[in-house]
Prior knowledge:
Layout: E1 2-8, H1 9-15, H2 23-27, H3 30-38, H4 42-64, E2 75-81, E3 85-92, E4 95-103, E5 107-113, E6 122-124, E7 130-132, E8 138-143, E9 146-155, E10 158-164
Antiparallel strand pairs: 1-5, 2-3, 3-4, 4-5, 6-10, 7-8, 8-9, 9-10
Helix pairs in contact: 3-4
Amino acid sequence: MIGNDVIDILQSRKESNWKRRGFIEKIYTLDEQLLIANATDPEIMVWILWSMKEAAYKIYNRQTNIREFSPRKLVCTITSQNKNRITGNVICSGNKYYTQTILSPEKIHSIAVSSFDDLNKVVEIENKSISKDKNGIPNLIVTSNSIQDVSISHHGRFEKVVTLSQP
């Protein structure tokens, strides 16, 4: 299974004041708050963690059909980080999701998968031949009898549509 989230950094600056009172405490666990406080660029860390949570939530929602706003229920851990790429995990209700986040000056793009090996199978596709089920969950129509998990994310100037390559 796959989920993704893209954040337009300029748009996030227009739409949200992450420094407002109570925002960090409402969204992030204590460990995540420490990551933000100790980050070289706290604003970017806020959106990295948010993006990881959103990407993992899309898998959780597909698995359970539970729709809820409970970002603190999605617990992020960063396992490695360099200037442009972050890998990590998100745990939600006992489920572990593996994430990879790509950073650029204009956007943050996180991908979550339910199996670690699937991080190497992620492909970006065009937004074609996609339908949503009764719960609003998107699927890629492969043939008239076959569908495949797909994740769509858009924010500001960016849209990302990803799926897992098939053998």
